[in-house]
Amino acid sequence: MSHVLACIDGSPSAAAVCDCAAWASRTLGAPLTFLHVLDQRRYPASGDLSGTLGLGSREYLLEELAALDEKRAKLALEQGRILLEAACDRIRQTVPYAGSRQRHGDLVETLRELEDDFRLLVIGRQGEGSGMLRQHIGSNLESVVRTLSRPILVTTESFTAPRSVMLAFDGSTTARKGVAMLAASPLFASLPIHLVMVEADTPENRAQLEAAGEGLRSVGFRVELAIRMGEVEPTLHAYQEEKGVDLVVMGAYGHSRIRQFFVGSITTAMIRASRTPLLLLR
């Protein structure tokens, strides 16, 4: 569980995934591996079409279609190999070693199989089938987040190394674990941290936030605390815009309104509206 794993495809965000993964690899001092998965739904391994058209006079057409499917799959495999080579070349000057893997199958299942091998997953907000609109997100992304227990760093269409970080804090066990993870990780060691709670400004909430902030300050972090009222997604993004925060950290399953982040529409809204990377903690 030592590698940074980065998912590469032919989408416009592939370059940002490379740059983000290289930054994470250098900062964590962890090896970087690029992964390309040939989607079995688009490029099935078998070219057997006999159950579709029947036999007899159509056998020639079956053979032609099967040959075409095989050719498409081979071309896609070669494209994936070239993408992996280009990814390794892009970061070669900044990361000492980057490995690569290519698989044929389902992305979510592949990541589940590899989960014990990596400590952080880097993935683009949009896959190559998501279209060009910035509001679209990859069809696999929510399934990946629901399935994996490792931290997931979601990149937008461009990446620059963050200079500040915001952690959405709700007092839940997940949020407290997030604070502990930030305190122990070298990923944000030199960056100022904004702890933001979207709740009523009560003495109890203030005490929880202060305790979390003190935990980070005790290990050397510069911390700014804030409690804001409002709906979770627009309030967090408004704070981020106001303070110029470069990266947002959130727990995937909390026990307050933040829990809705991965149960309802806040998931999609948060990812769609973000202009900066989003680190999701489990």
From TrEMBL:
Domain UspA: 2-154, 204-282
Superkingdom classification of source: Bacteria
Similarity comment text for this entry: Belongs to the universal stress protein A family.
Protein name per Swiss-Prot or TrEMBL: Universal stress protein
Taxonomic source organism: Stutzerimonas azotifigens
